[in-house]
């Protein structure tokens, strides 16, 4: 991947971080950590969104995209969403597989939500 694409994704990161709320007290640390990740994993893009749950709302920063995984000689692009909660870096990011409509999901697995 070229440095031009890296620069574009880092510029997008800076744009997205401008809309991140004040609850993120360590934005500089988060920006540096995420910029390093974006340089090595070209399939993730930074985003923010406001989520509502039980009358509460929160604007969260996250990365969305695919992680290429090698398995038995094939490469699979696993769709993921990685949430950075406001205590970051005191708490680790939360990572979720976000399956597409056509993906088969194993039921009954201890790490699979129903």
From TrEMBL:
Q: Name one Pfam family in it.
A: UEV
UEV domain segment(s):
11-114
Q: Name one GO cellular component term.
A: ESCRT I complex
* Domain of life of the source: Eukaryota
The UniProt entry's GO biological process terms, in alphabetical order, are: endosome to lysosome transport; protein transport
GO MF terms, alphabetically ordered: ubiquitin binding
Any idea what this protein is called? UEV domain-containing protein
Q: Which organism is it from?
A: Zooxanthella nutricula
The taxonomy runs: Eukaryota, Sar, Alveolata, Dinophyceae, Peridiniales
